[in-house]
Amino acid sequence: MARVSFEDMKRVGIALGWIVLYGVVGFAITIGIANLVPGWGGPRWYVFRNGAYEVTGFIVATVVVGKLLNQYSWDRMGWHTQPGGLMPRLFRGIGLGALMAMLAIGLAFVIDRATVRLTGDWSAWPRVVVPLGLGLVLAALGEELMFRGYPLRRLADAIGALPAMLILALLFGIAHARNPSATVFSTVNVALAAVWLSFAFFSAGGMALAWGLHFGWNAGLAILFDAPVSGYAFQVPVVEYTPGWHAWVDGGPFGPEGGIVTTIVLIAGTLAVIGARVKQPRTWLAG
């Protein structure tokens, strides 16, 4: 059995202290802004508004705690720009995330007879989709800053990439455990999604890839199919999603993330993110 030295405990304690400070700064600014400018834009801009609060808070926390106090470079915190820049990584993630959402819906259709019906109501579509789409972009970035980014890198530096990834994945799952219609299965799947996104973070794609995957998945479910995302239904016009017979298969009212269709897709998606490195396990979490 490996012995834990005082230096090991000290290193972990310091890392946790920095991460707690990061969270305090991020949430304090998020809550502060929300109290200063509550409700702007009305109900339709709710997702965008909350996403903007979170992104502002945690970008400031990243700059103050990660960059200035810890002196981590942007590259070290996952914002890789070489080679090719951020945008190709982001768009690659969006494409793969949306494809995975399509596969999950397809499996729900084939296995559990879930349905997607076109309603033809195009008149309201832009008014709903524009604020929702922009909101999902920010919501995905906000959660990546909270659970990947600086916290994942800082914890990985203290205890190793795999333990850090699993700890933050557990916290990510717990953070969604009180969402509407959440179940044990949905919580496990959300934690598994965090593992998928963490593999993206520790790849050459880094934060941009993880952000793109996160947004592509959420937007694919909500905008393309009107399926609930983590328990939240957005009532997107033009399409109407109805879950099938068994919630354990397609997630029921929680959305596909609550069912085995997402478990299957996330495993496949994680292997896709690992890519050619799959035959070299020691390189899966490099970086």
Task: Give the overall shape.
Answer: globular
Radius of gyration: 19 Å
Overall SS class: mainly alpha
Helix residue percentage: 55-70%
Terminal Cα separation, in Å? 28 Å
Protein architecture, described:
This protein has one domain (6-283). Helices cover 66% and strands 3% of the residues. It is built from ten helices and two strands. The protein has helices at 6-36, 46-69, 86-112, 125-147, 149-159, 161-175, 184-201, 206-225, 247-250, 260-274, and strands spanning 115-118, 239-242. Helix 2 (46-69) runs parallel beside helix 4 and helix 7 runs parallel beside helix 10. The longest helix is centred in the N-terminal third of the chain and has 31 residues, at 6-36. The protein starts with 5 loop residues before the first helix and ends in a 13-residue tail after the last helix.
What key attributes describe this structure?
10 helices, about 290 residues, single chain, mainly alpha, two-stranded antiparallel sheet
Summed up:
By secondary structure, the protein is mainly alpha-helical.
List the helices and strands and how they pair.
Elements: H1 6-36, H2 46-69, H3 86-112, E1 115-118, H4 125-147, H5 149-159, H6 161-175, H7 184-201, H8 206-225, E2 239-242, H9 247-250, H10 260-274
Antiparallel strand pairs: 1-2
Helix pairs in contact: 1-2, 1-5, 2-4, 3-8, 3-10, 4-5, 4-8, 5-6, 6-7, 7-8, 7-10
